Amino acid sequence: MFNKILIANRGEIACRVIKTAKKMGITTVAIYSDADKNALHVEMADEAIHIGPPPANQSYIVIDKVMAAIKESGAQAVHPGYGFLSENSKFAEALAAEGVAFVGPPVGAIEKMGDKITSKKIAQDANVSTVPGYMGLIEDADDAVKISNQVGYPVMIKASAGGGGKGMRIAWNDEEAREGFQSSKNEAANSFGDDRIFIEKFITQPRHIEIQVLCDSHGNGIYLGERECSIQRRQQKVVEEAPSPFLDEATRKAMGEQAVALAQAVGYASAGTVEFIVDGAKNFYFLEMNTRLQVEHPVTELITGVDLVEQMIRVANGEKLSITQDDVTLTGWAIENRLYAEDPYRGFLPSIGRLTRYRPPAETAAYTPGVAAGDAGDVVVRNDTGVFEGGEISMYYDPMIAKLCTWAPTREKAIEAMRVALDSFEVEGIGHNLPFLSAVMDHPIFIKGEMTTAFIEEQYPDGFAGVDLPEADLRRIAAASAAMNRVAEIRRARVSGRLDNHERKVGDTWNVTLQDTSFDMTIAADKVGSTVTFEDGTAMRVSGNWTPGDQLANMSVDDAPLVMKVGKVSGGFRIRSRGADLTVHVRTPRQAELARKMPIKVAPDTSKLLLCPMPGLIVKVDVEEGQEVQEGQALCTVEAMKMENILRAERKGVVSKINAAAGDSLAVDDVIMEFE
């Protein structure tokens, strides 16, 4: 076995590989850019080597710099993680030339299957059903429009070397095809150093289901079930689960056998993923093969008990697979939510900054990769991350903060465990998608398992504006807030150094307002909790572990858990739970009466301003001062975290002033342009 492995990556996946390598007794080497000097993966590794400036194209994807680090460290093998150089055949060739093992598939397999155009041609030659499209290289935007018309709108414009949603656009007409081609080409060049583009038919109402394969260099190959990855935003996965709630055993077997056959046809040896589009009749179409470890691999590990990173290392060491297809058993259900530094209230645009608070839910101590989740208890919580409290989310890399996973014997229990885990996850200092993830876990379509890849755009066509909780949930939060307020009031009443005759008494009657709903109630407290009785006579029993100043409240209402993130506001709390962000006022009856007479504060009018929705770089400005623009017209392009975002006019108007130019770096809410 190898004595030392270098991880040619950063962030969450570098930390993940380090954990398994240490479990195997292998010394680990991290590489880092200027931006990652204090990163978690650098701290976790046994050794760390600096490789250059923050941009990935000056550090993490520069083969010569990574090779120099390998030589300096004396590493015998390299694990590439995902992204960066993980599917770069030139990197694999450079390692082979130096006698360093690549913890991944052979060069030939990377070249044949890692390239989307080549892989589709191989699949077609092998009589694998593929999505209609144009597999040749596309020269320019005019050519892209012509081909798009031949294939038929809508089309998917894709980077040949792409992954992680980078270099991908959906076009519904000629204008979008022209714009999408250029943006995809630019993103592909910046992210992968390869700007080749191809176009395929975009199938509406599809499900994205992928098969995990594992092969060795001795001709053995198995599949480890499937992952449902249909909930995506901008073609980037957000929620994954295993197994799929849609597949039956016959379809799973057919997809798995086809995936293994395709892998073995190209001499594949390592962990890899064959992705399929599956329609409502369970017809499946080969989409692509990812010749690397997938981001969402933890859910497969949780239901199979197979440590995929360990298997990759063993295969790279020349070992035979120790398990056969008959040994693979899918146990229970696992769900993964990707926590991104993206503000869902601003169209999921990237958010950068310092993590002033980062407190994930407690992981299940008994669980480690390679142990069947069912052996670790009724519910397993796992959090794969590469950040820490006080760390900085950089503009130079992907905005993923963590991958929160839960496992339980059934899908229903896994979803409920995820709800509690999301409510327990404390993140402050940046915008993040925790509220959105909570909303998805409660959405009827997800609960029924009937989602497609169009889920987000169909269910949130105008973006995510938060969650309106049903009255039953509001009552639970109101009751808990009233009980918490009583605890705080008692503490304030006991403060020392009071003036004489200024004793503060804590009453039993309160009014709680939240989400435009008002509840009158009385509280009867005892040593173990409180009984909250509403005006209509219904009562709730509240208990829990919260003291004033705590930012997380683990409460119980009528013996059901209620986890809330708690902040202080004048006269009450800021409560975040189940995707809702609530201002909760707890007042005496007299205070409530006076509060109803107060005028409502009106927000400033920004309707005539184009505000920068995120910290980023202005790539180009598409209009001029004095120009009339139409609804939907492109105004400018902002780049952040390797993604280009086109800002469009919300309505017809005339540009009166432009405050930014190409190359300018802007902060959130900086005014880019003004309108008459």
Explain this structure:
This protein is α+β, with helices and mostly antiparallel strands. Helix content is 27%, strand content 33%. The chain contains 17 helices and 39 strands. The chain has an eight-stranded antiparallel sheet. An eight-stranded antiparallel β-barrel has the order 24-25-26-27-28-29-30-31, surrounded by four helices. The protein has a five-stranded parallel sheet with strand order 3-2-1-4-5. Helix 5 (107-114) packs across helix 6. The longest helix has 23 residues, at 471-493. The chain is globular, with a radius of gyration of 27 Å. The model has no long low-confidence stretch (mean pLDDT 92).
Question: pLDDT under 50 segments (min length 5)?
Answer: none
Average pLDDT taken over every residue: 92
- Kindly report the spatial arrangement of strands forming the biggest sheet: 14-13-10-11-12-15-22-20
Tally of helical runs: 17
Quick one: overall form?
globular
| Strand tally | 39
Helix content: 25-40%
Provide the structure class. Answer: alpha+beta
Cα(first) to Cα(last) distance is: 69 Å
**Per DSSP, what share of the residues sits in E-state strands of 2 or more residues?**
25-35%
Main pleated-sheet profile: 8 strands, antiparallel
Radius of gyration: 27 Å
List keywords for this structure.
27% helix; 676 residues; alpha+beta; 17 helices
Topology:
Elements: E1 4-7, H1 11-23, E2 27-33, H2 40-44, E3 47-52, H3 63-73, E4 77-79, H4 89-97, E5 101-102, H5 107-114, H6 116-125, E6 133-134, H7 141-151, E7 155-163, E8 166-171, H8 174-192, E9 197-201, E10 207-215, E11 221-233, E12 236-242, H9 249-265, E13 270-278, E14 284-290, H10 297-304, H11 308-316, E15 333-340, E16 342-343, E17 349-350, E18 353-354, E19 357-359, E20 380-385, E21 392-393, E22 400-408, H12 411-424, E23 426-428, H13 434-441, H14 444-448, H15 455-459, H16 471-493, E24 509-514, E25 517-525, E26 530-534, E27 539-545, E28 552-557, E29 560-569, E30 572-577, E31 580-587, H17 589-595, E32 609-611, E33 616-621, E34 628-629, E35 634-640, E36 643-648, E37 653-658, E38 665-666, E39 671-675
Parallel strand pairs: 1-2, 1-4, 2-3, 4-5
Antiparallel strand pairs: 6-9, 7-8, 7-9, 10-11, 10-13, 11-12, 12-15, 13-14, 15-22, 16-17, 18-21, 19-23, 20-22, 24-25, 24-31, 25-26, 26-27, 27-28, 28-29, 29-30, 30-31, 32-39, 33-35, 33-38, 34-37, 35-36, 37-39
Helix pairs in contact: 4-5, 5-6, 7-8, 12-13
